[in-house]
Amino acid sequence: MVPESYRWEFVEQESDRVKQLAAETEYPEVFAGLLMARGVHNKEEAQRFLYPSEKNMYDPFLMKGMEAAVCRISQAMDTREKITIYGDYDVDGITATSILYLYLTKAGADANYYLPDRMSEGYGLNEHAVRMLAETGTKLMVTVDTGISAIVECRLAKSLGMDVVITDHHECQEELPEAVAVVDAKQPGETYPFLYLAGCGVSYKLVQGLKAYRNDQTDITEYLELAAVGTVADIVPLYDENRIIVSEGFKRMKYPANMGLGKLLESAGYDFKRKITSGFIGFGLAPRLNAGGRMGDAKRGVRLFTTRDEEEAATIAAELEVENSHRKETEQMILKQVTDRIEASDAIRNSRVMVVAGEGWHHGVIGIVSSRIKDMYYRPNILLSVEDGVAKGSARSIEGFNLFDALCTCSDLMIKFGGHAAAAGMSLKAENVPELARRLNEYAKIHMDSQMLVPVQRPELRLKPSEVTVELIELIQRMEPFGQDMPEPLAEISGQLSEVRKIGADGATLRMKIMDHRRSLGTVGFRRSIMAEYYSAGMEVSIAGNLDINYYMDRQYPQMILKDVKVFREEKIEKLMTYFSLRHVTDDYKKYCDSREKTDRSWCNQVFRYLRMQAKKQGSDSEGGFLMDDIPFDSIHSAEEHIFMLMQALYVFEELGLMRVETSGPYLHYEMFLGKTAKLVDSLWYRTYFVDFGAFQ
Which fold has domain 345-453? Predict the structure, then answer.
């Protein structure tokens, strides 16, 4: 495997406006620039951004449908009608359900909840559940984090004498459900100031509305703990009102009022002496909570957050820990099967939207695997589990490619689908899967350019090692919480490498030191030890990463969490490497080749010998790796020409099956299939772009 590599886009700020903000706030210019990049333009906005408060949340009645919703729910509370909260089985749905259930039961309402089974019922409302709720006496059904596309199910509920209030945050389709009220900031005609609340955020706003409507004096701010968990887990933008929810929730989470949340934090290994972070919620807490719905019964998550029995809370937290371990094992098994299929198929591997189907894959896990596949290949992808002729799946997308819009063009193939720009779920007949793949890739040809297929790093700070101080890092940490659309600032540090080595018990971590004439800065790259094979002390580089504080022997030291390394290159060379890292021939690259003279066939001999030599140097007869611009070049050819000719030869060798090549940006790794021979003229690429003087075996 080669290391990850990114396209860097430095974020520039208007220097005059940054200076003005720095003078007004009395913050250093470098910090003022970070604030301005996050929409802060004056001292008052800086205060609201750095010190979020629930007092600054918007009036819930600004949201369309809110008044009708709280009026109907309040009526049901007063008349003791049976209210059922219908939630989703993910973290957002579990926390949204828990927030509303805790409030309603505390207020004395006759309330219960229903979460569908992921395996047998799937996402959203379903006819069986609606009929069952009506038969068992439910008079009012309130959906949370679901329902906006339940046209048929809401019509059925009405026919069975059951009122429905929809609260959701997902994208609306053309027709809205027939309901007493629809509360979703994505619906037409919405005027609410913030459109990106998670389902749990909408649930909290509903509770705010009920509290105000009923003139209730209950303190509801303890529910912000749960709202913060669901908001981070659902990967919604962490600015504006979401920032308030998460910030206030994190403050309270150090001493959680919710017993079940406290037990879950303990189980996940949270150190209550440290600040909670979005990273801990996203990678530590959410997977455990999600495991309940993925591997078993999601209602356990609601029981965890609503029980008053400490022993029961501890038992459920322990169960979720076990199920999370089982989920990891299942995930690894499916991930291997998916990657095997991708690697075995050039058609899938080189497609812009990867569509992979398999028999019997666990529905609760394929969404996670889809995220892993997106990270590994940086392609939008859909993973489908086929059972009884029906393919049900999950999809994840990359920056700039709206997955929901793409799926809308294939709606006639679907039984059901929903989601947003970055993620979606769907079901369709298995026989329609090939047509789905074909149409999505045709759509991608129009709506996805080659640059989108290379992940982007966006450094906001350009610093020398000696300019990185503990004081600067402490200022940056005041900008927390970080998350979706509120990224932790990325720094670009330039200097000379003074140390490159693998560390850790398993040697999987990379340690680099980068220095200028005054001081060195330590960097740590988790799971990036492979970079040690490509970089060495003495190289002039730029390193991109997040700034952090290392606590050692009661002292604080600045350090960087490494994301990527870049050796200075000319723009033309960068572009060539980008072309090759896409792993399929783009129209832009063909035009580039057409504009150049054909490559001499003798170059293939030279490249083949060079690769054999590199492999032997690295202790192998057939495998090697290097930085593409590290190849030696003579006075006749420039570095650009050498890289171009290297790429041309590699395209030929791959086409003839003589070797397998893996690239990512400047990194190249290859495996030569020794003993196999072929004629160069059998390669279409060779016949098109090489000058031929006879056969070469």
Answer: Diaminopimelate Epimerase; Chain A, domain 1 (3.10.310)
